[in-house]
């Protein structure tokens, strides 16, 4: 499947490339980003280089770099993975570099990818997990129409403590109803 390029008001989503590796490395090395996403694996630079060089060719997923109009710099990524064409569902994941969080880029990226998911791919459901300690992300997803579907208790570590994973989902008819608001 050819990976799309999507344009919004502020941002452009394009396939991740090998030359994004420096910025991806920054993102996966950020302690707060790792905490908020539950990342525990310590990536090597070689892993990041290989991932950036090969991810656009992988089937069953769409990994896109978030960039702003007029600049091709990788600000973060948004991913539709576990795409199941039979069940018409996928999982959504968003991660932004530290300097670009809280600016609305992630919200617009999600809106663009949901349009692709429901209008372009014909999906019925998009799901995601968000850590209970990531209250800003939880609020953003709720504002975009995602509904809490469940909770995995003590599924992740938050330093020395445990935290829950909140499972959320958005159905096609909920997405369409939200487009009318």
UniProtKB/TrEMBL annotation:
Superkingdom of source: Bacteria
CDD domains linked to this entry: NAT_SF
Keyword match Transferase: yes
Q: Does the keyword ATP-binding apply?
A: no
Entry-linked InterPro entries: Acyl_CoA_acyltransferase, GNAT_dom
Family annotation (PANTHER family): GNAT-FAMILY ACETYLTRANSFERASE, SPERMIDINE N(1)-ACETYLTRANSFERASE
Name of the protein described by the UniProt record = Aminoglycoside N(6')-acetyltransferase
Source organism (scientific name)? Cellulomonas soli
């Amino acid at each position: 499947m050819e990976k799309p390029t999507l344009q919004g008001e502020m941002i452009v989503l394009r396939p991740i490339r090998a030359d994004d590796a420096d910025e991806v490395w920054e993102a996966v090395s950020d302690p707060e980003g790792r905490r908020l996403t539950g990342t525990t694996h310590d990536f090597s630079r070689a892993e990041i280089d290989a991932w950036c060089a090969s991810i656009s060719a992988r089937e069953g997923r769409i990994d896109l770099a978030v960039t702003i109009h007029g600049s091709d710099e990788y600000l973060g990524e948004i991913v539709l993975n576990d795409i199941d064409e039979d069940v018409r569902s996928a999982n959504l994941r968003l991660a932004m570099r530290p300097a670009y969080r809280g600016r609305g880029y992630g919200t617009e990226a999600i809106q663009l990818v949901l349009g692709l998911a429901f209008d372009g791919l014909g999906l019925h459901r998009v799901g995601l997990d968000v850590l209970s300690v990531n209250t800003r992300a939880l609020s953003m997803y709720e504002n975009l129409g995602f509904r809490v579907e469940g909770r995995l208790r003590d599924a992740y570590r938050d330093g020395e403590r445990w935290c829950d994973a909140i499972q959320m989902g958005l159905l096609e008819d909920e997405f369409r109803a939200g487009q009318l608001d």
